[in-house]
Amino acid sequence: GGASRKNARPTRVVRAVHHKVMSILSRLTPQKYDVLKEELFQLPLKQLSDSELRDVVKVFFNKAVQEHKFSDLYARIVSDICQMSEADNALDKSTRERLLQIRMRSELLSACQDEFNRPLQLTQKDRVDPITGDPISETEIQHKRDTLKARLVGNIKFVGELYKYSLVNPRVVSNIFSAFMADYDPANPTAKEDYLFEVFGMLLRTVGGRLCRDDPQVIETVMDTVHIIQQTHTGNRVRFAMMDL
Questions:
Q1: Measured CA angle at 36 (ends 13, 55), to 5 deg
Q2: How many other CB atoms are there within 10 angstroms of residue 64's CB atom?
Q3: Closest CA to 58 of 32, 73, 78
Q4: Quick check: 228 and 186 in contact, CB under 8 A?
Q5: Are 181 and 200 in contact (CB under 8 A)?
Q6: Do 235 and 188 form a contact (C-beta atoms < 8 A)?
Q7: Sign of CA dihedral 188, 191, 194, 195
Q8: Helix intervals (H) in 82-193
Q9: φ, ψ for residue 184 (rounded to 5)?
Q10: What is the Cα–Cα distance from 236 to 84, expressed in whole angstroms?
Q11: For residue 137, which of 25, 35, 144, 190 sits 20 to 30 Å off, Cα-Cα?
């Protein structure tokens, strides 16, 4: 009996940590920030294995992606957890890599990368009922499309906020800008869906100030693209969105 109880313990602990993190994040507001941060710091996050930590990071990530209006707050609390002291930085490489701060940051960036790599188009499998194999309704297809778009918006906003807290480097942000607009074709401006221009604009508004200081060259390239879109896109909504930047 003792051995089986002992083996069951970690999962119980992980479930409790998981539950507590969800509870803290659902109560997080600017006013309660300091109190809830302390509550979070009391949790045994350092003791979690890599796979357990990955599950906990998913809680942070999903919360930030689903509630992108608060992604600044979620990025801030993650940044506080990942804060490195001088003593931490002085450790040898292999010890440093086992620190919670490094592991958490690494898991978080993997989650953002995986989300970004997900296809934006629905596959054939997404368009049929998993049980009957029958095609699903147009309404359901639209709902799935909207969910994909919303997750993209949430992920990109969160990456932008993480960058402002120095958890993402300028190269990552630059790569995202390229991924969005490098293939923009002035001769065929409506080949890209309108919402992609909106996400591009949202990222620029989120990171623009900081990126100007970190890498003016990237901002220059991005603004050149903005001007080309302004001059060549045939949709008023997209043109006006670019003018706001």
A1: 35
A2: 28
A3: 78
A4: yes
A5: yes
A6: no
A7: negative
A8: 86-90, 93-96, 100-117, 138-164, 170-181
A9: -65, 130
A10: 47
A11: 190
Q: Tens place of pLDDT for every residue, the chain, 245 residues?
A: 444 444 445 577 778 898 999 999 999 999 999 999 999 999 999 989 998 899 999 999 999 999 999 999 999 999 999 998 888 888 888 888 889 999 999 999 999 999 988 877 788 888 888 888 888 999 998 998 899 899 999 999 999 999 999 999 999 999 999 998 888 999 998 888 888 999 999 999 999 999 999 999 999 999 999 999 999 999 988 988 888 88
Cα–Cα distance, 106 to 50 (Å, whole number): 10
- Within 28-84, residue ranges assigned H as helices are 33-41, 50-66, 71-81
Place of tokens 């998981």: 18
Residue 181: partners with Cβ closer than 8 Å, 6 or more residues away: 200, 222, 225, 229
